[in-house]
Write a structure and sequence with these properties.
Layout lengths: L1 E5 L9 H10 L4 E4 L29 H11 L4 E7 L6 H14 L4 E5 L5 H6 L7 H17 L3 E4 L4 E5 L13 E4 L3 H10 L2 E3 L5 H17 L10 E3 L5 H9 L4 E5 L5 H14 L1 H7 L2
Helix pairs in contact: 1-2, 2-3, 3-5, 6-7
């Protein structure tokens, strides 16, 4: 089982490229960055975490810019969006950004995506909350066409374009894995139908393990090899007993939280993780 980290890359925290260098030197497998293009001041949509929305949500760097900086300073660590709100992005431009980062990093890009929760944020991008997942599906299918076909076209309700040329193509073949975040049965069905992995938030070990069983059932019904839909746990607690349970359930990767703070506060956290969880690094080839 691989061990990665995630952090809100903000203008007041350790730089993403510096964090990537430090994480790679400690043998973490991957670095993941969330995104929000902005946060509407109205704050009408409650934060799913409860209470006041943390400051970092309105201070995030663009993940593709930050991960590109990380890519040019590192050699091995994989670089993920955790998550990219593709519904708030143009499909053709996002396909280009993903392919570009994958080429620059020589195949280290991981595309974590999600539908989002902030209604006003997505409405500012012209996206309806009620149809966001219909758009997300079309975007994923359209991007896969762009990445794998010399003359790609797509005709849907939310994404529509005639044949296009778009290079570079991704380094990874056929393309970087598209990993869908979320915790519902609907999410797991979408994973089976058109994505390449599932990324639930680790609110409880039991909920995740139940979800994995449901994912297995859905994959079997769709006659899809479960090995093609690996599971990444977002926000796993750094408890050996929890990680043992995930590993026994066949989880591919866990992502541990790093606070958006300065270097002298972040690096001790990485050291503790590396010291306490070293055996998982060895077993998972992180």
């Amino acid at each position: 089982m691989k061990v990665g980290i995630f952090m809100f890359a903000t203008d007041y925290a350790i730089r993403a490229d510096e964090l990537a260098v430090e994480a790679e030197s400690r043998d973490f497998e991957s670095l993941w960055l969330p995104e929000h293009t902005h946060i509407p001041v109205s704050r009408q949509t409650p934060w799913p975490g409860g209470g006041e929305l943390p400051k970092e949500y309105s201070h995030t760097f663009d993940p593709f810019v930050a991960l590109t900086a990380a890519a040019v300073r590192t050699e091995r660590i994989r670089l993920g969006t955790g998550i990219c709100l593709i519904i708030e992005r143009d499909t053709l431009i996002t396909a280009k950004a993903v392919a570009s980062l994958d080429r620059i990093s020589e195949g280290r890009m991981l595309l974590g995506i999600g539908g989002g929760w902030n209604v006003e944020e997505m409405e500012n991008h012209g996206v309806s909350y009620s149809t966001r997942f219909a758009k997300l599906r079309e975007q994923v299918l359209a991007m896969k066409a762009i990445w794998t076909e010399d003359e790609a076209e797509f005709h849907g309700e939310h994404v529509d374009f005639d044949p296009v040329w778009s290079w570079p193509k991704p380094w990874q073949q056929p393309h970087p894995p598209v990993i869908l975040g979320g915790g519902t049965g609907y999410t797991r069905q979408r994973v089976v139908d058109f994505c390449d992995g599932w990324m639930p938030i680790a609110r409880s070990v039991d909920a995740v393990l139940t979800g994995i069983k449901d994912l297995q059932r859905r994959a079997e019904e769709a006659q899809r090899d479960l090995a093609s839909v690996p599971v990444t746990i977002f926000g796993a607690a750094p408890k050996p007993e929890d990680l043992d349970a995930y590993r026994e359930a066949g989880v591919d990767r866990v992502l541990l939280p790093v606070p958006p703070q300065e270097r002298d506060q972040v690096l001790p956290r990485l050291d503790r993780y590396a010291s306490d969880l070293g055996r998982f690094f060895e077993d998972g080839e992180s």
